[in-house]
């Protein structure tokens, strides 16, 4: 069975995902170009101002990244082993220090992320939240074509999962459910729907729920101009991090 057909059948078996199925059909037919709107413009802009993860953490948070990998060496080694054992391919680890120190800087109690995959970003967040008995709220679509639901978040140790609430729907269904539970967040990490309109919708939904001093992080901002356009619209001064050939946007809400 082809991947497309397998995915379609899996959607049909889950009525809760029908709204997302409808959106995907429209995105892949009527709106095929919109996911990449402004891509060239934003890549030029991002490249012109990008700095390293270490520099941003130093400038924004006045913290040094050198201790993270040594402090959590055993946990990270076990997480790497878990990823290697996983029989399906999902998104790999990103800028873990950036995410971890954002939580440390804000002394985070409530963190929201979209996109989980193996759970690398979740792990970085939870390593900080456990110190303050905080909670991570995550939105992640089921991996329908790969039968991968059981592996989502697989690198997260069992002892950290008590600080974690995972919502297995598309963002447009997950986020309203999460926002009914929590009035404000200290850190937001975006790594889900990469389309222009998907990003814009989520950015606006979450920005107004971030407290002053909260940290906003968005991965893969070079896919289109949504992040750049959002920052311009909201008059936000942002940093851009170049990491493994891609760009990450980050700012502290004023």
Automatic annotation (TrEMBL):
Gene Ontology MF terms: methyltransferase activity
InterPro entries, A to Z: SAM-dependent_MTases_sf (IPR029063)
Pfam families membership: Methyltransf_24
Gene Ontology biological-process annotations: methylation
Alphabetical UniProt keywords: Methyltransferase, Transferase
Record flagged with keyword Transferase: yes
Signal peptide region: none
Methyltransferase in keyword set: yes
Coiled-coil region list: none
Protein known as: Methyltransferase
Lineage of the organism: Bacteria, Pseudomonadati, Bacteroidota, Flavobacteriia, Flavobacteriales
């Amino acid at each position: 069975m082809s991947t497309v057909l397998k995915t379609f059948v899996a959607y049909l078996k889950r009525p809760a995902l029908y709204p997302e199925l409808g959106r995907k059909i429209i995105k892949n037919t009527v709106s095929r170009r919109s996911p990449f709107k402004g891509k060239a413009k934003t890549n030029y802009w991002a490249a012109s101002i990008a700095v390293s993860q270490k520099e941003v953490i130093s400038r924004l948070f006045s913290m040094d990244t050198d201790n993270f990998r040594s402090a959590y060496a055993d946990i990270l080694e076990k997480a790497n082993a878990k990823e290697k054992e996983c029989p399906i391919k999902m998104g790999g680890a990103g800028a873990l220090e950036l995410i971890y120190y954002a939580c440390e800087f804000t002394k985070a109690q409530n963190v929201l992320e979209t996109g989980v995959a193996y759970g690398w970003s979740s792990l970085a967040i939870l390593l900080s939240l456990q110190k303050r008995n905080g909670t991570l709220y995550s939105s992640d679509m089921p991996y329908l074509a790969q039968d991968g639901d059981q592996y989502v978040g697989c690198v997260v140790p069992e002892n950290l999962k008590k600080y974690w609430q995972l919502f297995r729907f598309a963002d447009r269904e997950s986020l309203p459910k999460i926002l009914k539970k929590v009035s404000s967040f200290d850190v937001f990490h975006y790594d889900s729907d990469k389309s222009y309109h998907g990003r814009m919708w989520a950015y606006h939904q979450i920005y107004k729920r971030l407290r002053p001093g909260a940290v906003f992080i968005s991965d893969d901002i070079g896919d289109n101009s949504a992040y750049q356009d959002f920052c311009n619209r909201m008059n936000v001064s942002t940093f851009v991090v170049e990491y493994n050939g891609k760009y990450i946007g980050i700012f502290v809400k004023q």
